[in-house]
Design a protein that fits this description.
This protein has 123 residues and is mostly helical. The chain is built from five helices and two strands. It has a domain of 78 residues. InterPro entries: NAD(P)-bd_dom_sf.
């Protein structure tokens, strides 16, 4: 989205995001928690929509001129993933959508990825 490629929007409705620190914490928590059942756990702290993500990024980072995400048709609606099994073990997420997106943008800036795409960006 941040690179201006609106062609992927129709393929996305709900996104399940997690901060890398929460993902690592969940792995350690489950490893150390004797009450955790064996099996797979979904680790998604922030289910969001493409529209919500667009609003957040456009408001916080207007310098990127993010294309408008057209509302998606209900027929293309996908269900989000649930972290209920993980949360039932007592695990708590520490990072929300703001942290996830802000730190992703910050990391891309530090590595020069955004400058490579857009040239010098005034912030």
């Amino acid at each position: 989205m941040i690179v201006g490629n609106a062609t992927i929007f129709p393929h996305l409705h709900k996104l399940s995001l997690v901060h890398v620190d929460d993902l690592v914490s969940a792995h350690i928590f489950l490893y150390e928690n004797s009450n955790a059942r064996a099996g797979r756990y979904i680790c998604s702290s922030t289910p969001t929509s493409i529209e919500e993500m667009h609003r957040f990024l456009s408001a916080k980072y207007p310098e990127f001129h993010i294309p408008i995400a057209q509302p998606l048709k209900e027929a293309y609606k996908m269900s989000g993933y649930s972290s209920k099994k993980l949360l039932n073990t007592g695990f708590e997420f520490k990072h929300g959508l703001d942290d996830i997106l802000d730190e992703a943008i910050q990391s891309c800036r530090e590595k020069g990825f955004l400058e490579n795409l857009f040239g010098k960006i005034d912030t």
